[in-house]
Amino acid sequence: MNPRPPGADLPEHPDHLWRDPEPGRSYDVVIVGGGGHGLATAHYLARNHGITDVAVLERGWLAGGNMARNTTIIRSNYLWDESAGIYEHALKLWEGLEEELDYPLLFSQRGVLNLAHSLQDVRDSVRRVEANRLNGVDAEWLDPQQVKEVCPIVEISPDVRYPVLGATYQPRAGIAKHDHVAWGLARSADAAGIDIVQNCEVTGIDVSGGRVTGVRTSRGTIAAGKVALCAAGHSSVLADMAGIPLPLQSHPLQALVSELLEPVHPTVVMSNAVHVYVSQAHKGELVMGAGIDAYTSYTQRGAFHIIERQMAAALELFPIFARAHVLRTWGGIVDVTPDASPIISLTPVKNLYLNCGWGTGGFKATPGAGWVYAHTIAHDTPHPLAAPFTLDRFTTGALVDEHGAAAVAH
Amino acid sequence: MLLIPCPWCGPRDEAEYTYGGQAHVPYPQDPASLPDEEWGRYLFHRANPKGPHAERWCHTAGCRRWFNAVRDTATNQLLAVYRAGEPRLAGGEANGRDLFA
Fold this sequence. Notes:
The complex is a heterodimer. Chain A is of the alpha/beta class. Helix content of chain A is 27%, strand content 25%. Chain A contains nine helices and 18 strands. The longest helix of chain A has 21 residues, at 81-101. The mean pLDDT of chain A is 94. By secondary structure, chain B is mainly beta. Chain B has a domain at 1-25 and 49-92: Folate-binding fold, CATH 3.30.2270. Chain B is 9% helix and 33% strand. The A-B interface holds A 234, 236-237, 240, 245-250, 294-299, 303-305, 338, 394-397 and B 1-2, 14-15, 18-19, 36-37, 40-41, 43-46, 48-50, 53, 55, 71, 73-76.
């Protein structure tokens, strides 16, 4: 019997880690969106580029959008070289981020299994493992017995509806505590003098002579030398204010947690074919994500039949979960691109920048996205790792198709 | 789960339907002559408004016919449904008329 209750080892919730400033009249850089990516961008603008006359404007509360709604999975086992570049850069930053921020993020490299359920899955997965290795990303192909050794609670019987034929395994993958990531980044940005302004909704983008000059907000007009959009599901709405059409579709994506349970699940398990991905949080909840709802929506809620289908699949994979209870479900809005890869880009409007399209998998990229986006903003030219992800690939056709590795069916 | 009124069958659960994306997107008349920007726009860009959105649905598990609907993406409320081939509705037409009557 373990005398310590689940969660006893977690740090206490902090008091105040950043100021709550009134928005100023003007800034060198205004970041629209105070989620993980916006805060990471602010952090790296200060740390890497010495740019601190910056405001992060957040419509609601800090990191209350997708940053609070995702399943916190971190990995870099994508197929293409371009993706390996940016996601592996992010993973390497994760590995030093607690020290960099001097803040506990509960980053736990417990590995991720991506299950294969069909012969085609197996072929694609083995190909991806080989591609990962060529790019210096740790990856292994495991047979069902090896899957069982890594995660004993996975059902590997051949008689189930979705038999496990094997899995890719990335040992350096893992999870982190999303709130702590946001708080650590916000504290760092604030300490550098950056204003984090909550309850400040951007209602318009001022453009003059093809150049951005500021934003209109629910708390007044703010002049800006540069404006960096970082608003995930609402990116289309914001870009539309500057007359820029984006190749995005905003869908609800749901996740859920069980009650607190004893530790039973040592790793992260994802399954493309059955639309479920599962880990066990530090406190003990099982955290599970579903597939997206088919239609576009900004409602931050999804349909229950999606959850029901996902639970049915999860029970096939993990019979031990049969008596767990769903404690809470929620939805976020994910901005999906045609090729399931992000957009980090300059725009047709001078000094207006774009970081969006991370779709169902933006959390894992948080530090990497912030790093390359800050560089892109500071130098007015794409960071080399972001260069393949500019907006013009939807004209040239140079897509980075990651539907296979994006894990959530689009 | 949405309750979607099929123009032929009446209100049925969302699970009976398949979503078909934005409605009224014509195939370009002469694709080969289009500049890359316009062809890219046809291939990759679809409306993503926060508000009324004209979209296609197929009553897959019912009459198996395609039709169009106007749905408010900020609330998921269905504002109008009409048969394929009929002119686009703005969504205000349902005012004073119960879609589900």
